[in-house]
Please model this.
Amino acid sequence: MSDVVTMTLARRIAAAIDTFSEWTGQAVSWLVGALVLLIVYDVAMRYLFQAGSVGLQELEWHLFAVIFLLGAAYTAKHDAHVRVDILYDSTRMTPKHRALVNITGTVFFLWPFCVLIIYSSWPFVANSFAISEGSPDAGGLPYRFLLKAAIPLGFALLALQGVANLIHALGVLFTSVENETKK
Model:
């Protein structure tokens, strides 16, 4: 295949991943509103009516975990993750240099970390499914294994978005190289 066909295919793959991450991020964003309403209800019940619920409190942190885990790919897509921007955002950093930083970060940090979390969480999740784990607290939520399954799923989605980000960075890098050779 020619370089043009390869880059076109890669860009289509990146666009499909971006679309999927956008969709999951938008879907998860609805959970934020639900979490806020749940917390308001829980606080009102506890402080106004002295009626607390272990199940409601667990549901709050379950929703927060799902928002965090499944929203990470969306955050990476929009380049809104936390990082030290002292050098990255400096005026001396060209788009080519930023692309190199993104490529290095994805290959040497993001992917290995995602693989480590997926690999190390798998037995944890499998055991939870095997025993149909629920809350150990009285009045707690059943099906805790579903929450634990969000750990490898969230990091798989993040690694997948890393593929799209890598393709975008390579596109910037190769476009910069092509423009420099044409001069």
